[in-house]
Amino acid sequence: MRKRIRLLSIKGGVGKSVLALQIANYLKEVEVPFVIEELDPLETICVLTSCSEDYQIIKYFSINDFLYNRLKIDEKKLERQYLGNWRIAISDAYTNISPDDEAIKFQNKITDRNLNVFLTDKLTINETISYARKWEGPRVLIVNFSDEGIVNDLLDYVYNEGLFVKIFSIPIFDSFSDFQDSEIIKDVIKELLSILAEYT
């Protein structure tokens, strides 16, 4: 059964695309077939991967679409890109996308088994929580560039309000290679996949 990890944020620079790529690399390592849905018109995933053919990237928009303010999807063209063998879609959504956006509605036709993962930094936690309330289905919160103490401060959102299935904190890393090789990141990805299996 096909499922999706949808990465969402209300601001750029919180590590959404980098985490999407790390999830893809992990799935490649454990031989789970996947696609990456690139909704970011700046094509960040393509830049990070150098548009490598090792990744099946489904591009929703182009840079020209963004520059000329015409973020309209071509459903027939996109549907063809979904053909093939995959089990998990990793969706790198553009910043502050609405759950009512036509791209999201189209994605839900492909599969409506979604885990919505909200990435934030410490400065925009409250705004991210408000944004997360707009989305249906299981939700996870990842506070990037933070410490474990932040999770303890937010536990009531997990246990009392039931808004998030789980909250993670990811520390600041000295380099991108440290991030890539981190056991912390691998553990977060493994837990996300477990939550995806359990809740969707």
Describe the structure.
By secondary structure, the protein is of the alpha/beta class. Helix content is 41%, strand content 18%. The protein has helices at residues 16-29, 44-49, 63-67, 75-81, 102-110, 125-132, 149-153, 155-159, 176-181, 183-199, and strands at 3-8, 34-38, 57-59, 88-92, 114-120, 139-144, 166-170. The protein has a 7-stranded parallel sheet, with helices on both faces. The radius of gyration is 16 Å and the shape is globular.
- Residue share in helices? 40-55%
State the separation between the terminal residues, measured CA to CA: 10 Å
Given helix and strand content, the structural type is alpha/beta
Gyration radius (Cα, Å) is 16 Å
| Average pLDDT for all residues | 90
Low-confidence stretches: none
Strand order of the largest sheet: 3-2-4-1-5-6-7
How many β-strand runs?
A: 7
Question: Which term fits the overall shape?
Answer: globular
Number of helices: 10
Strand content: 15-25%
Q: Biggest β-sheet, characterized?
A: 7 strands, parallel
Topology pattern, helix = H, strand = E: EHEHEHHEHEHEHHEHH
Write a brief structural summary.
This protein has 200 residues and is α/β, with parallel strands linked by helices. It has helices at residues 16-29, 44-49, 63-67, 75-81, 102-110, 125-132, 149-153, 155-159, 176-181, 183-199, and strands at 3-8, 34-38, 57-59, 88-92, 114-120, 139-144, 166-170. Strands 3-2-4-1-5-6-7 form a seven-stranded parallel beta sheet, sandwiched between helices.
Secondary structure layout plus pairing:
Layout: E1 3-8, H1 16-29, E2 34-38, H2 44-49, E3 57-59, H3 63-67, H4 75-81, E4 88-92, H5 102-110, E5 114-120, H6 125-132, E6 139-144, H7 149-153, H8 155-159, E7 166-170, H9 176-181, H10 183-199
Parallel strand pairs: 1-4, 1-5, 2-3, 2-4, 5-6, 6-7
